[in-house]
Amino acid sequence: MTRKQFSGLVSAVALAGGLLMGGTAAAEDKVGFIYVGPIGDHGWTYRHELGRQAVQNEFGDKVKTSYVESVKESSSEPVIRQMAADGYKLIFTTSFGFMNPTLKVAKQFPDVKFEHATGYKRADNVSTYSARFYEGRYVVGKIAGKMTKSNVIGYVGSFPIPEVVRGINAMTLAARSVNPDVTVKVAWVNTWYDPGKEGDAAKALIDQGADIILQHTDSPAPLQVAENRGVWAVGQASDMAKFAPKAQLTAIIDNWDGYYVARTKAALDGTWKSEDTWGGLKSGMVELAPYNEAIPADVIALAEETRKGIEDGSIVPFAGPFNKQDGSVGAKEGEALDDGTLLGLNWYVEGVDGKLPK
Amino acid sequence: MSGFDWVVPIILTVITAATPLVFAGIGELVTEKSGVLNLGVEGMMLVGAVSGFITALVTGNYFLAVGAAALAGAIMAFLFGVLTLSLMANQVATGLALTLFGVGLSALMGQEFVGEPIAALSKLNITGLSDLPFIGPIIFGQDVLVYLSFVMVALVSWLLYKTKAGLILRAVGDSHDAAHSIGYPVIAIRYLAVMFGGAMSGIGGAYLSLAYTPMWAENMTAGRGWIALALIVFATWKPGLVLVGAYMFGGITILQLHAQAAGLNVPSQVLSMLPYLATILVLVLISKDESRIRKHAPACIGKIFHPAA
Amino acid sequence: MKLRGPPMLLKIEKRAEYSKTMVYLTPIIALVLTVLSSIVLFESLGVNPIEALYQFFIAPLDTKYEFSELFVKATPLILCAIGLSVGFRANVWNIGAEGQLTMGAIVGSSLFIYFPETDSIFLLPAMIVMGALGGAAWAAIPAFFKTRFNANEILTSLMLVYVALLILSLLIHGPWRDPAGFNFPESETFSDSASMPILISGTRMHFGTLMALLAVFGAWIMMARTLIGFQVKVIGEAPRAGGYAGFSRKKIIWFTLLFAGALSGIAGLSEVSGPIGQVVPSISPGYGFTAIIVAFLGRLHPVGIFFAGLLMALTYLGGETAQINLGLPVAVTGVFQGMVLFFLLACDVLVHYRFRLNIARKVTSQ
């Protein structure tokens, strides 16, 4: 265990205070997590925190996990570096904005392994991982297309980044495949997390005729609004049925547990390699919460069929033929968007209202 | 939709968006009228929000919950009072420190309560009246806190300008030395005003966690305390205008979301700027008459009072 | 003010002159009080208080790198606070440094964004100048509204913070995206000629820190030795006297806002072309707001601000260290910071006042 060198004075003070740093440390390996939000956000960061707990439970005394929450992306580099310098074996940096800081630190600490979520830059000691949430949204789109009466689906967006646009498009394609009259309205709130504003956006969408609300923001507020207004909604990141028992059709759940445990194991037994993982329904990184009992059996059957199809590869969400919003061809018959295109997706498919902010 | 049907839901949404601002704004207005500037509104709102939420969850009694929120806000404000009034610490810095403290404290208090749902504060439902077209849901279908926010504005307005107590409060805010020499207990009055401000901020926060989005999540006020502070300046320290400002700000926030949902072809960031730009614009338009503002702005705001014993 | 508790009377008396001893002694008293109350706080959270205090105040400084990080973190705080403090002394309540910082970063980095190929040695100096101009331009809006329309600068400067952040969001989610970056909201990383030189190799301490030091000395000299500094003080302390002396309040409003805007703008540019190295959706974790506390904590004096900036930076770094090593949630950092600030602010009373314990039968209240 590499302990930092204390100056004489400091260690004297520390010892006098009965401080025995590292004195009890066994030969445990340390795994660190850097979070962009508070673990109490009940959304994105909360799910990563559950992943950390899964690692701790799995390996017990063999590893020591720690985390730093609410790390601002612009000042993340020293935090990541501090963990690396403290002898952490594996460090998960769980927000896109940590990408360049992670790579900078990784260069200085070639023996430390890094895992960066949702980025695209890798190195020998930096892996990337992300989840194909759009697969979940494609399943949800089938349900939404069948369940909507007004044929208007509302979508509360955070920021117009490819990740969010992918979700909107996948949902729209699926909904229109079962109901060509569907249009999708999007309201961008320009924040990941502001319960009041997210709720207001949901209200505005409902007032504009939407009877199903989807969201790509972190709080359960839009579901509460849906519950209150008597329309449907889909949970985000966690099962949010507690907040909207009647309204939640299902929820798209992020589940990092399996991945974090597997990568920690690999780091411990020396088999860790730099990889790019983009897991979806099949890998369990994306899950669907139990379906609402109010959904008719045939719709559930359709959703399950879609889910299984995606898992076994017989259904590809972004398979053609479909058009872009402007009427030009998005993907031709027999073709599908490749991962590179999906990664940087910045146009809407046909059926989405409004212009994508650029 | 036909006719004016679409107006009602918009107004209802604006009411919920404006109510927390009204509470926090009217409370801070009284604080400032007494000559004290407390920038800790955001922190007091958060502590109020979490206290109200926990009380509602544990007891199921929303009356108690609102009381707990007010009490928690008042305690925070009392802390501010001890530092700035008794120990004469700088008000601006202490207020900001109070916000830092409140953000942390509320998160610490609420740790166990994240992800717990509660029922929303119930809305008034008067058979017959609440079902009236248009005015029914707007005037007879709100929750009790919305009515209370209007009552508080009226009450504060009446207190400040029609009662002796209000006269004294304004005197303390305008010239603490003069007020002191007449024999008014300047510090005690300011304590009361500061704590009233804290209690109102607490209720404003609780409106978020009990009615607006009934849940607790860290930092859920998301900057509304700052907006409330700005609205007092906007209102040139007049209670009625705090109400106008809050509804204007809330209204533009909601309308820009509607504009987006309707597919208006303007970047969302530009639409999101509108409430802030509109507030500046209106302030500029109403600020020209300097003497009118002077009449209402407390002259001693932010200044430390120490009686020359 | 009297705290009544018969028959004793605790009285706070104004000193005839401020106590020089107390100027230096109060931070120490505050530290002692912090330590004492931390014992209660951390014990109640089940954490060894000595270890917690060690993590907050000492562990963040025990290597060269970490020590340098203190300056990296303090640089934007000091730059903004120096700018704000001059305004505060003239009773100009600019609370929008965060927006001025953001605008400085935007305008400054626009040079790199639109001329990424340039490798001229003049690129960075030009960016710094543009950053200062951008921040000053953003501060000029409240100055204009204040002097021309009498619009309160507290509201206008605060509202412009949100507008500046949204402009940044508009740019970074749109035209400023790295063309090779899969449409993620980040600009290209800055070239060497657009980046702040590093002062000590192996650390992130950059040229911005030197500019902050320069600002500290410059502001010190300005306030103590120059006519404009004198005018700022007079307008702040005795506006009428200033008027008789022929000092223009409008001119001082313009000067203080532009000064603060320029320094905040430089702070913003130093962040993007220093530690961050590219334009990102959120440039500052609230430096512009924290700087207000720093300014007052430093008693609006440049040297005080320098130390207050370092202290504030230390509590942030300490909070991170405590999270890593002790698993203390970030909420505890907020509570702890609040406490430290409360004590520091409260102890300031001793500089200008003294406590006296009187044994008295009667409370005289007039």
Automatic annotation (TrEMBL), chain B:
<keyword id="KW-0472">Membrane</keyword>
<feature type="transmembrane region" description="Helical">
    <location>
        <begin position="92"/>
        <end position="114"/>
    </location>
</feature>
<feature type="transmembrane region" description="Helical">
    <location>
        <begin position="6"/>
        <end position="24"/>
    </location>
</feature>
<feature type="transmembrane region" description="Helical">
    <location>
        <begin position="182"/>
        <end position="210"/>
    </location>
</feature>
<keyword id="KW-1003">Cell membrane</keyword>
<dbReference type="InterPro" id="IPR001851">
    <property type="entry name" value="ABC_transp_permease"/>
</dbReference>
<protein>
    <submittedName>
        <fullName>ABC transporter permease</fullName>
    </submittedName>
</protein>
<feature type="transmembrane region" description="Helical">
    <location>
        <begin position="62"/>
        <end position="85"/>
    </location>
</feature>
<keyword id="KW-0812">Transmembrane</keyword>
<feature type="transmembrane region" description="Helical">
    <location>
        <begin position="36"/>
        <end position="56"/>
    </location>
</feature>
<keyword id="KW-1133">Transmembrane helix</keyword>
<dbReference type="Pfam" id="PF02653">
    <property type="entry name" value="BPD_transp_2"/>
</dbReference>
<feature type="transmembrane region" description="Helical">
    <location>
        <begin position="134"/>
        <end position="161"/>
    </location>
</feature>
<feature type="transmembrane region" description="Helical">
    <location>
        <begin position="266"/>
        <end position="286"/>
    </location>
</feature>
